[in-house]
From TrEMBL:
Main location: secreted
Protein family per UniProt: Belongs to the glycosyl hydrolase 27 family.
Keywords: Carbohydrate metabolism, Disulfide bond, Glycoprotein, Glycosidase, Hydrolase, Polysaccharide degradation, Secreted, Signal
Designated name of the protein: Alpha-galactosidase
Lineage: Eukaryota, Fungi, Dikarya, Ascomycota, Pezizomycotina
InterPro entries referenced in this protein's UniProt entry, alphabetically: Aldolase_TIM, GH, Glyco_hydro_27, Glyco_hydro_b, Melibiase_C
Enzyme class (EC, first level): hydrolase
Length: 661
């Protein structure tokens, strides 16, 4: 058996074992039962601005402002009173009640007020023995009272329940927060979701367990959205941190089930205008609920017109509420240059693309459309720059402020890699294709030149400086081609026959040993265990995130090389393995994304962060191990697949294997 065969057999056996014996892949059920939130919910919530100190006056004034400022018309609908609303203890008959000092008219009246504005009423509780609370007093949570509380919320006219996760870990004696519980918080959500389903009143359920135990795998059946990460905080570094945590799970979003990136900080005067645009753009296109967390209006505060314009941008809201309901996904990150690209499909054959500037300085950025699967767009709308252009081939450049985002809506697009002769320059027998894109520099591209007609004898065709023979009666010629990385290759083709298209096929993927990568700093090369690092390679440990770019974003990975992420193929295939990895630790601002798959020189790597770490500690390992994830292992980055085609075949085989289990 060759090394390759051994590798394939090993991989297949791993897949079969993990899929057949361990656990059947979990179907990602959608919460069809309540029929709510078919598009991401939009609204306002008290927490980001007022913390756990809401009261009737501020809820009234903000709800009224949502209407008066025109935001209700734009789709913002749910007014949710977050933590701090209740009394320490239940009533003698066991029901929760509001704190009358804060809500003198009571919660039923509050619901009536909100409904009277044509808005919907969101309530808050917690699946632990106490609710989350900043400061005091401690307040009873819903654990063991789910049915009663659901009925109480219904009696008040609630339309939404945000359900938190404080004081919920029985095994540890119910601490305030537990990011590494011994059992999943899922059980508490199963119970409350069941209690809500038993009601006659439809109620949106917002699961808020801060991403503990990878709720993307179980929350879609229990709620309409689920938090994927710890709380947003009022510093820009929170944005790349939460986005990093979204990277491996955007595919779990869909109608009725959305990844919740947390409430918006837009309007809280903590971000620049460009940062607010980045925050709002990415939350919108990832199909997060858009829940305003700023004070719109109270005795002390009025939202700025700049923030209001961002929250009210109809293009961006439209991307969030698009009928297709597909979340944008991470496509590529340039760690050294400090920017990244996200993109996703929209209805009407459109595509939304976000080019995020992570640098602390303004710059000009270029998006190469092939990085998002597109060659040409008949229309490009540059939302924040207010620019619209037609017929853009291969790439688009624009300036962007520090931490800003170029947000593009592309229409009338063609598939990457195919260049029409009608877009080339034709001069007698010479056709010149410009703006030809190559992901990497290689002599191994294949170009396929198609002609509009054929002739009965063979013809000479010159491509660049090389001459080829087009066989008699043929309309298509395939030849190898050198292309330099970038969007500015020019290919000149001389032929007596007119051309129709030039199609470029990427070079086949190649294995490279880890010795191909330069290591520095604390990084070390270490030996792989038996059967790991197949078919080539060794492991590099202790990669310290470096700061090669002039900016510093603890929430962002900084490696010595560029990353291209191909997480989807892998993650969609192996949910059961993902579940085993789970999110075993919750990372705050200084921690990096817990798992990401990416490719370097067409090698895909899987990167796992299985221990608490910080940017200062920086402790990434990566290797090219092939095999199942190992629980409780030190931090490792694994090459889980090298050839995407091979992987797809392997996946097909494993599906057959599962079907035959
Ligand atoms: C309500 O909250 C606002 C803003 O924090 C505060 O100024 C006001 O005093 C509070 N009112 C009551 C009755 O607690
Ligand atoms: C408990 O008492 C409150 C206050 O009297 C009342 O509104 C509520 O309906 C009671 N709950 C039950 C379950 O009887
Ligand atoms: C909550 O309820 C329990 C009884 O279930 C009670 O002992 C406790 O004091 C209550 N209050 C708080 C703040 O936990
Ligand atoms: C919901 O109703 C079902 C069927 O009556 C019952 O078995 C279940 O316990 C109820 N759920 C809750 C949380 O009360
Ligand atoms: C080029 O011609 C080949 C052979 O007819 C065909 O399969 C292919 O789809 C054509 N390519 C394009 C881009 O039209
Ligand atoms: C693109 O290439 C052409 C020549 O092939 C060169 O003149 C031009 O400056 C290049 N443009 C950029 C932006 O590099
Ligand atoms: C990787 O290293 C091998 C030798 O170890 C070398 O032949 C090859 O060209 C290198 N590949 C790249 C892409 O640097």
């Amino acid at each position: 058996m060759s090394t390759r065969q051994a590798f394939e057999r090993f991989f297949i056996s791993i897949l079969s074992v993990s899929l057949c014996v361990e656990s059947k892949p979990m179907p990602i059920g959608s919460r069809e039962s309540n029929g709510l939130a078919r598009t991401p919910l939009m609204g306002w919530n008290s927490y980001n601005h007022y913390s756990c100190y809401p009261n009737e006056t501020i809820i009234h004034s903000n709800a009224q402002a949502l209407v008066n400022l025109g935001l209700k018309e734009k789709g913002y609908e749910y007014i949710t009173v977050d933590c701090g609303w209740t009394l320490p203890d239940r009533l003698a008959n066991g029901t929760l009640t509001w704190n009358p000092a804060l809500f003198p008219s009571g919660y039923f009246a509050l619901g009536q007020f909100i409904h009277g504005l044509g808005l919907k009423f969101g309530v808050y509780s917690d699946g632990g023995i106490q609710m989350c609370m900043t400061g005091s007093p401690a307040q009873n949570g819903s654990l063991f009272h789910e049915d009663t509380d659901a009925q109480t919320f219904q009696s008040w006219g609630a339309d939404l329940l945000k359900y938190d996760n404080c004081y919920s870990d029985a095994a540890l004696g119910y601490p305030d927060t537990s990011y590494t519980p011994t059992i999943s918080p899922k059980g508490h959500y199963v119970t409350m979701s069941s209690a809500i389903s038993n009601l006659t009143r439809p109620m949106v359920i917002q699961i808020c367990d801060w991403g503990v135990d990878f709720p993307s795998l179980w929350a879609p059946a229990l709620g309409n959205s689920w938090r994927i990460a710890n709380d947003i905080i009022p510093y820009f570094r929170t944005i790349p941190r939460i986005l990093n945590q979204a990277v491996p799970q955007t595919s779990f979003a869909g109608p009725g089930q959305w990844l919740d990136l947390d409430m918006l900080e837009v309007g809280n005067n903590v971000f620049t205008q460009a940062e607010e645009q980045t925050h709002f753009s990415l939350w919108a296109i990832l199909k997060s609920p858009l829940v305003i967390g700023g004070a719109l209006k109270d005795a002390a505060t009025s939202i700025s017109s700049s923030s209001l314009a961002i929250l009210g941008n109809e293009d961006v809201i439209g991307y969030n509420q698009d009928s297709l309901g597909v979340a944008a996904s991470f496509r590529r990150r340039w760690t050294e240059a400090g920017y990244e690209v996200w993109a996703g499909p929209l209805s009407g054959g459109r595509t939304v693309v976000a080019l995020v500037n992570l640098l602390d300085v303004a710059t000009t950025l270029t998006v190469d459309f092939p990085d998002v699967g597109i060659q040409k767009a008949s229309s490009v709308k540059d939302v924040w720059n207010g620019v619209a252009v037609q017929n853009v081939l291969t790439s688009y450049s624009a300036s962007v402020a520090a931490h800003g985002t170029i947000l593009l809506e592309l229409g009338g697009t063609t598939a990457a890699g195919i260049y029409a002769a009608s877009d080339a320059t034709v001069s007698s027998s010479t056709t010149t294709f410009s703006k030809v894109y190559a992901k990497t520099t290689s002599t191994n591209y294949i170009s396929i030149v198609n002609f509009t007609t054929s002739v009965a004898s063979s013809t000479t065709v010159t491509i660049g400086s090389k001459t080829y023979q087009l066989p008699a009666n043929s309309k298509s010629l395939a030849v190898p081609l050198f292309l330099a990385a970038g969007n500015n290759n020019t290919i000149t083709i001389k032929s007596s026959l007119p051309l129709s298209t030039l199609a470029i096929t990427n070079p086949p993927s190649t294995f490279y040993p880890s010795t191909n990568f330069t290591i520095s700093g604390t990084a070390t090369r270490t030996t792989c265990s038996t059967n790991l690092c197949l078919p080539v390679g060794s492991k590099i440990g202790y990669l310290t995130p470096t700061r090669l770019s002039p900016s510093h974003h603890p929430g962002t990975l900084f490696f010595h090389f560029r990353l291209q992420i191909h997480q989807h193929l892998f993650l969609q295939q192996r949910h059961s393995d993902l579940h085993k990895l789970g999110i075993r630790h919750q990372y705050q601002e200084h921690d990096l994304v817990w798992e990401v798959a990416f490719a370097i020189n067409n090698i895909a790597y899987y990167l796992e962060d299985d221990a608490h770490q910080s940017a200062s500690k920086g402790n990434w390992d990566y290797n090219c191990q092939e095999g199942p994830p190992v629980l409780n292992s030190p931090i490792t980055v694994r090459n889980i697949k090298s050839r995407l085609v091979l992987l797809m075949i392997l996946f097909a085989i494993s599906v057959i294997a599962v079907a035959s289990c």
